[in-house]
Structures are given as C-alpha cells and as structure tokens.
Amino acid sequence: MKRDLKKIGGWILMLLLAVILLYFAFKGVKWSDFISGLASCNFWWILVSMVASFAVFVLRGIRWRYIMLPLNPNITRKEAYDGVTIAYLSNFALPRAGEFVRCGVISSTGKASFESVLGTVLLERSWDMLCYILVLLGVLALSWERFGAFITKEIWTPLVEKLPFDIAWLIFVVAIVFVALAAWVYIKRETLRKNRLIGKIFDIVAGLIRGLVAGIRMEHKWGFIVTTILIWAGYWIMSYSTILAFPQVVELTAADAAFLMVVGSLGWIVPVQGGIGAYHFVISLALFSIYGIAQTSGVIFATISHESQALVMLICGTISLFSLRKRKITIFKHQNNS
C-alpha cells in the first residue's frame, strides 16, 4: 500500500512540475498572436518532420537489434522496433520508465533475459551520450560568434565580475582540487564502492565506458555506426523542417537547427510525462535569450515541434502495443493447438 502511494505521489509531483513549466512557458503569451502564428504555419514541413520522426524510430529499432544479435540472432527488427516505440509511449505515463519497458518487450518473447537486454540499452545510451557531446561541441565551434557571445555576455562576464579575486587563481585551484579528488577516489575506490549511492555511480560510469568499447568491438559495428549517424541526421531534419514551417523563425540556419535539437533534448530528459512543459519552456527560453525571438513565437514553435513529435510517438507506440498483443495471442493459440 505504501509503495503504491509513493508511486502515485511521484506521478503527481512530475505532473505538477509539467504544469508549472507550462505555466512559465506560456506566461505572457498573447493568445491572438498565438492563434494567428499557428495559422501561418506551413504544415507540409511539419509533415516532413513527422516522417523523419518515424524514420528515426525505425532506425533505432535496427540499431538496437544489431546490439542484441549476440544475445539471440532470432530477435527480429519488428520486435526491436516495437520495443522502441512502446518505450516512448510508456514515457507519457511514467517518465524514464521506457528503457525498462522495452527490455520487458524483448524479454517477453523468451529470446533474451531482461538483464541481458538492459545491458544493450546501456551500451546504446553510452553512444547517444557521446553523439550528444560531439554535436554540442560542433555547434559551438561552427557558431561561436553567436553562442560564444551569449555565453560570455550572459554567464561568464557576470560570474567573473562578482569574484573578489583573479579568475586565473580560481581555474588553478579548481584544477588542483579536481586532480587531488580524482587521485583520492582512485586510491579509495574499493572502500567507496561499499557505499550504496557511490557504488551505483561507479557502476554507471563503468557501464558507460564498457558500452563505448563494446560498440567499437561488436560484430556489426559499421551497421551500428551508420544507423547512429542516420538517427542524429533524422533528429536534425526534424528540427530544421520545423524551422522552415514558421515564417517567424525561418531566418534561422542549419547550425541553429542543430543547436535547437541539442537544447530540445534537454526538455525530453526532464522527468515529466512526455517532456510536456519542459520542452516548451527550454525551447522558448533559448529562442528568446539567444535569437531575440518573441516569447509568443517561441512558444508556437515549441508547441508545434513537441506536439507533432508526441503525436508520432503516440500513434506508433499504440500500433506496436496492439501488434505485440496480437502476436502474443497468436503464439498462445499455436502452443495450445500443438
């Protein structure tokens, strides 16, 4: 009973967070401008974004299957695809539960254990994290004039001006502390592992490293790498086609689309149902802070971008859910007949 109450309480808190973020995202929005902005949208470009979103789901299924083939070569692309789409669907009910749900989809086929499939998810996420960092660094390098000026003006300069000492001393002290802390953690690693929380952090870091190494050594590594590149290209197409759909932001470039793609990912990571509220808040804030785009225009962009992606997730996830159920019924009937 207490466990159920905790789950319900957690779900309500996440929903409340989504509502709060939505409130701040839409606060001050002129609704007449919002409606006219929606009317000016070119929904053919939104359709392109939705097709790209579906293609990403297919590619994620193909890539995930490459990782799972050593577990069982009989795992099909359809099963991997269903696992991916049902995972996204489940995130609308319980944030971050999708990774466990898709492991359950595969393990329910009897072709691999839940624990072994969970290991493949960790490997996949290791590479996604690496790609995310590379894209972020690439965006900063290509558009440093714009993003660098923002970081310098809004973050770095105000921070330095408030410091009572030279910034060089701070950098030196932080470097010394970091090296000393790293050395201490390495020396005391066995003792630290006994602490449940720290041990968990150690396991996560070790798992990420193993995942990156395993991706390079796997049998189908080139298929894995190519699909990974195509997946991130798909994310960029989703972002850029949404930009092209709106006259208010159409002057933004391909590099800006990559930046918004990176920023938007943060909105989906926040533990709220389906990124609702968090995505709207982050994207509209970025558009206003960096590009000077009015809040109403930013919220329109974020709303259409999020809802079009969410619609694809809901449709694909629901179809996969029924497909999985139908497949289980068929298998059950076949077993009874035999």
Q: Give the fraction of residues assigned to helices.
A: over 70%
Order of helices and strands: HHHHHHHHHHHHHH
Largest sheet: none
- Note the gap between the termini: 42 Å
Q: Low-confidence parts lasting 5 or more residues at pLDDT below 50?
A: 21-26, 331-336
The oligomeric state of the chains shown is: single chain
Number of helices: 14
Q: What would the principal axes of the Cα set say about the shape?
A: flat
How many β-strand runs?
A: 0
Structural category: mainly alpha
- Using the CA coordinates, give the radius of gyration: 23 Å
Binned strand content? under 5%
What's the mean pLDDT score?
75
Structure characteristics:
mainly alpha; disordered C terminus; 14 helices; 338 residues; 82% helix
Q: What does it look like?
A:
With 338 residues, the chain is mostly helical. The chain has a domain at 42-143 and 219-337. Helix content is 82%, strand content 0%. Helix 5 crosses helix 6 (114-142).
Concise description?
With 338 residues, the chain is mainly α. 82% of the residues lie in helices and 0% in strands.
